[in-house]
Amino acid sequence: MCPKLYKSAVVEYKFSYFVPAIFIGNNTISGNIPIEIGQLQLLHGLSFRKNNFSSNIPEHISNLENLEALDLSRNQFTGNIPSSFTKLNFLAVFNVSYNNLEGSIPRGTQHQSFNASAFEGNLKLCGPPLPNECPANDDNDNAGYSQDHTEDEHENLISWFHTSIILGFIVGFWEVCCPLVLKKKWRYGYFKFLNRAQDFLYVIIIDCVYGKRRLRSSI
Description:
InterPro entries: Leu-rich_rpt, LRR_dom_sf, RLP23-like. It is an enzyme of class 2 (transferase). Its EC number is 2.7.11.1. The structure is a single chain. With 219 residues, this protein is an alpha/beta fold. The chain contains three helices and ten strands. Helix content is 40%, strand content 16%. The strands form two sheets. The protein has a five-stranded mixed sheet with strand order 1-2-4-6-8, with no helix packed on it. Helix 2 (136-182) packs across helix 3. The longest helix has 47 residues, at 136-182. The chain starts with 11 loop residues before the first strand and ends with a helix.
């Protein structure tokens, strides 16, 4: 459901060369935030503060990986703060205060570094940086997410390791074989070298065998 606009709400778009941002604050807009917001991946700033938005905070906001400021304070949002928000590595300003959010605050460097005032006014919200601790089941959910995230990183690392080995083998193989295929002189020289090496090894082996026999016969 798209947001309904009441009174004369002004939608202010601020797009500059360096900091593209959308600020729709201090209005009486209600409804849900459209999931299409996640397609605006060039956004660096997003503010919906002091409106009447409701329902859950859409996880699609986590697709805005360049986001530096996100203000969703003083609305009627419910549910949890999406754990996918931990992917917003450039987030320097974050505020979800005075909503109806609940559950544990996602564990990530950015979220724990924000002041507790960014989360206040949500009576059922818990975990650092808020002073109230979460129940055991919420901690387990966060631990499960962290474990899954670690396992995904480990699988990606193994995948890249195998890929690098295969690419290295292919490149090394063609660096040796390609000149032999394309240049006739190199091919003749290579096989001539192999024949000489074979003869040399044959002589050494024969010499060792007969040397041992002569040693035994002398004893």
